[in-house]
Amino acid sequence: MYELNEEYLIDILKEQKIPTATINKIISELAGCRIYIRKKSSEYKRIISLYKKMKKAHISDKEIISYISKVENKSKQRIREILSAYSLIRD
């Protein structure tokens, strides 16, 4: 886990072209807080989002799982488990 400070957060928000007034308000609201952003939840959201986009393109589950496995550097079985946990596929 990395320890980051407000300067790093400000730089990220500026890169995203967030207005300075909004950045200042965010920093003010979060002052004194310690924030932990879970890696798995954002990772799972990415996997689910990618699955849904590819499914809309009528790509087979087998091809989708294979592709996501390569992109996320996870085993096909682990991708199946994640998608199954969110009831997107049957295990």
Tell me the number of strands: 0
Terminus-to-terminus distance: 32 Å
Low-confidence stretches: none
How many individual helices? 5
Please describe the biggest sheet, giving its number of strands, its sense, and whether it closes into a barrel.
Answer: none
Structural description of this entry:
There is one protein chain. The two termini are 32 Å apart. Helices cover 67% and strands 0% of the residues. It is mostly helical. The longest helix is centred in the middle third of the chain and has 18 residues, at 39-56. It folds into two domains: 1-36, no CATH class; 39-85. It has helices at residues 6-15, 20-30, 39-56, 61-72, 76-85. The protein has five helices and no strands. Helix 3 packs antiparallel against helix 4 (61-72) and helix 4 (61-72) packs across helix 5. It is elongated.
Please write out the topology:
Elements: H1 6-15, H2 20-30, H3 39-56, H4 61-72, H5 76-85
Which features would summarize this protein structure in a list?
0% strand, 67% helix, 2 domains, 5 helices, 91 residues, elongated, mainly alpha
Q: In a few lines, what is going on in this structure?
A:
Helices cover 67% and strands 0% of the residues. By secondary structure, the chain is an all-alpha fold.
